Amino acid sequence: MGKYEFYDLVLDGPIAIITLNRPDRLNTMGYGPWKEMAVIQDEIDAHREVRAVIIKAEGEHFCAGIDLKDLEKVDSYWVADNIAWLQRLYNRWQEMNAVSIAAVHGLCYGSGFELITCMDIRIASEDARFAIPEVRFGLSPDMGGSQRLPRLIGPGQAKRLILACEEIDAREAREIGFVEVVVPREQLYERALKMAKRIVNNPPWAVRFGKKAINASLDSSIAGGMLLEQIQSIFCCGTEDQKEAIRAFFEKRRPEFKER
């Protein structure tokens, strides 16, 4: 593993743990952190054994959005040259085979908010606060927030958060379906790790197909989604891992999967 300036990366067998490590800047995003994020994604993809990714943060806050010092240097030409790459960068968390889990505490604003909309599962501490305030600064969400957020919480709630720039706490975030689990701050990482372990202890191909089928359901017809279910069922049924899962259940032991 390389040493990173803006993040810490730990590969622990099938689980990768990424820590946003810029607490003196409230873990804000910018060109440097984004470039390094792409390198981390490459490293994770290079380790085929990684099947779950936890993204957490050092310091008092998860991410306070984009670094305004970087934003001052950006103009329409820079955006035209880079925005498609930035969108692909965030999309990659949703598209990769590994299941991504965000463990969020403190402030989660702007670019950090859009980042966690790409995660498969969001866990928040009780002190977490969420906002997507781009409109306040004369902008509109441009890294997938306007597309993913309505799919998570519905168009009305998405318009409330994006157009009125309202901040919500962890309790409300769970109520409207933006986060899946809320825990006390001191239990946040433990809960994320527990979920990651539950995921990687399941048959790898079943998890991979399950993630892809759910993602596809957001953009495809029911008929298209059912066809994908048929394909994954034909593939998975009768594999060594599927048989091992059944044997281990009846023998009351931990299964040993081989991705076959």
From TrEMBL:
Annotated pathway: Lipid metabolism; fatty acid beta-oxidation; Lipid metabolism; butanoate metabolism
Record's catalysed reaction(s): a short-chain (3S)-3-hydroxyacyl-CoA = a short-chain (2E)-enoyl-CoA + H2O
Signal peptide: none
One Pfam family matching this protein: ECH_1
Known EC number: 4.2.1.150
GO molecular function: 3-hydroxyacyl-CoA dehydratase activity; isomerase activity
Family to which the UniProt record says this protein belongs: Belongs to the enoyl-CoA hydratase/isomerase family.
The protein's name in its UniProt record: short-chain-enoyl-CoA hydratase
Source species of the chain: Thermosyntropha lipolytica DSM 11003
